[in-house]
Design goal:
Blueprint: H1 2-11, E1 13-14, E2 17-24, E3 33-37, E4 45-47, H2 51-71, E5 79-80, H3 82-85, E6 116-122, E7 128-135, H4 136-141, E8 145-150, H5 215-220, E9 226-228, E10 231-233, H6 240-257, H7 264-285, H8 288-312, H9 333-349, H10 355-368, E11 373-376, H11 378-385, H12 389-398, H13 408-413, E12 420-423, H14 439-453, H15 456-460, H16 465-476, E13 492-493, H17 495-500, H18 508-517, E14 521-525, E15 530-535
Parallel strand pairs: 1-5
Antiparallel strand pairs: 2-3, 2-7, 3-4, 6-7, 6-8, 9-10, 11-12, 13-15, 14-15
Helix pairs in contact: 6-7, 7-8, 9-10, 10-12, 10-16, 16-18
């Protein structure tokens, strides 16, 4: 028997590998890229239009190979794991784990196993694509690697792609479909435990809940298996309740992918169930990669809840009134923290203390925060500063805080189709960078400030720069429920908004009353050296989420 197994082992063929690369060609300034494929029959291609055109052609080239592979029968069950043939270097971080060209590791030296799968790997930088036949365990261990198709076990085959004993597993006819050229995704195929239908569900599908199988059900389901997170659930996994939960979770995630509308609460619950199930699976199997997957699921659940909290201003799962309105926030909690850092910068670096100057510095800083340059139109400037625009710009230019390509009059006359390119020297890249956010956050912050300063009711009341600065400050310092200050604090220290708005503390109350009249604040109180209040309901989307 040992001789027969060894003979069958020698009959196994190496897993096929297709590698598509995108490399610079010629002079870097020319921007030309070269597309090459490891298959000798595929000639190199050159794209003078740049990397975008090259990436589009590379994806088409990869899909063309996938179509031919599927037309030829898909992955081969008798193939040797291509990743293991490369000493598992595709997912083993230790460079000493194996030597190129040396002896292949003995069976069990690497974590190979499971059926042969057809995989596609795309490098995050968009420069390398790889199609390979490998074992399912290696495919699951390689970051950014997607399993597209699973090979049936070879006839009379007693070993896995890695050479270790393999348990027989049924094949799902849906995984052998060859009618699609582009890469397949897991949400298009329910697990074999879910039934024989290959049609995707229409509309939201109820998520099955985990339950322990009765002895009768356990015997009837003993041969069912499924897939979750590109892993095959063994048909004889014990305890049986864990196997059932993993199968149902795989189907539940695929059902969620078919939903027309996202449900973060439901997705967070699925990730939490997955974390518990994978932790138990790791305990019973001793596979450390399953525990890593459980930790990733825990982090995904936490991130999903945080995203929902940023979006609606309250945490998923909070008990309370189910009729509580959902608030679509303009800023996430992290973006709101960046907004407050900009306010602090403006307070410290405005060249003149006047409220009009400080308001202009705030808006122009948000335009130029990333590169020190930005665009502005005359309509922007007059909308922010009304009749004071020319005087304020003259002050900023005279202080060398702002540089314009022409005169102040030219900037005030500029139209949206030909805006003025402004420069803020203190924010140029060669200077120390005061902000740590990217261009997307900069755009969000600029839009948020524009909505606050240009609020319709503030304009209708013709409120001045001081009151508008107070409106921006209060919006940036609110709790998720719209109250000023953190939930545990009794409002805001009165001297902080007063300093930002260039007021004395006892002058804040006057401008607070103006904000109440403009329906910016629903209520407010300035007694005891604290500013307490609540944003009006219409302003809640601008709340900064302390």
């Amino acid at each position: 028997m040992t001789v027969e197994a060894g003979a069958r082992q020698e009959e196994r063929v190496a897993g096929r590998v297709w590698t598509v690369r995108l490399d610079p060609y010629g002079r870097p300034s020319a921007g030309t890229v070269r597309l090459s494929c490891s298959r000798p029959a595929c000639a190199d291609q050159r794209f003078p239009d740049g990397a975008a055109a090259g990436r589009k052609a590379a994806v088409g080239h990869v899909n063309a190979h996938l179509a031919r592979i599927r037309a030829g029968g898909g992955p081969r069950g008798e193939a040797w794991c291509a990743c293991r043939a490369a000493d598992c270097a595709w997912h083993t971080p230790d460079p000493d784990a194996g030597r190129r060209g040396g002896a292949r590791p003995v069976a069990g030296a690497v974590r190979c196993g499971g059926p042969v799968v057809l995989t596609v790997y795309a490098d995050r930088t968009g420069r390398l694509w790889r199609i390979a036949e490998m074992c399912a365990r290696c495919a699951a261990a390689i970051p950014d690697c997607r399993a597209l198709d699973t090979a049936p076990p070879p006839a009379q085959q007693g070993q896995t792609a890695s050479g270790a004993p393999m348990e027989p597993e049924p094949t799902d006819s849906t995984t052998r479909a060859v009618d699609s050229v582009a890469a397949l995704f897991s949400d298009h195929h329910p697990s074999p435990a879910g039934g024989t239908s290959s049609s995707p569900p229409t509309g939201p599908t109820p998520v099955p809940r985990a339950r322990a199988a009765t002895p009768g059900e356990a015997s009837g389901r003993g041969k069912q298996w499924g897939k979750i997170a590109q892993r095959t659930v063994p048909h004889d996994l014990q305890p049986d309740a864990l196997r059932v939960e993993l199968i149902e979770l795989g189907d539940a995630f695929r059902a969620y992918q078919q939903r027309t509308e996202p449900d973060p609460a439901l997705l967070a619950e699925l990730h939490e169930r997955k974390a518990r199930a994978f932790a138990l699976w790791a305990d019973v199997s001793g596979d450390g990669s399953l525990r890593d997957e459980a930790r990733r699921a825990e982090k995904a659940a936490e991130t999903t809840r945080e995203m929902q909290n940023n979006r609606v201003g309250r945490i998923i799962g909070n008990t309370g009134n189910g009729d509580e309105p959902v608030v679509q926030r303009l800023l996430t909690q992290k973006q709101a923290a960046h907004a407050r850092s900009v306010l602090e910068y403006v307070e410290a670096h405005a060249p003149h203390p006047e409220a009009e100057v400080r308001l202009a510095v705030l808006m122009l800083t948000l335009r130029a925060a990333r590169a020190g340059t930005g665009n502005v139109t005359g309509q922007d400037l007059t909308g922010w500063l009304q009749g004071d625009a020319e005087h304020v710009l003259d002050q900023l230019v005279a202080a060398d805080w702002l540089r314009l390509p022409g005169t102040v009059a030219d900037a005030l006359a500029s139209q949206p189709e030909s805006p003025t390119a402004l420069t803020v020297p203190a924010l140029l890249p060669e200077r120390p960078r005061p902000f740590a956010f990217g261009k997307t956050t900069r755009s969000k912050l600029s839009g948020w400030a524009q909505k606050a300063v240009g609020d319709r009711k503030l304009r209708k009341k013709k409120l001045g720069a001081t009151t508008r600065l107070l409106a921006v400050y209060t919006a940036a310092h609110t709790s998720p429920d719209g109250r000023l200050g953190r939930p545990e604090d009794d409002g805001l220290p009165l001297n902080e908004p007063a300093t930002f708005c260039t007021l004395l503390p006892d002058q804040v109350a006057e401008h607070v009353e103006l904000l109440i009249a403009a329906d910016w604040l629903a209520e407010a109180d300035t007694t005891g050296g604290r500013l307490r209040g609540h944003l009006a309901e219409r302003v809640l989307p601008l709340g900064g989420l302390l």
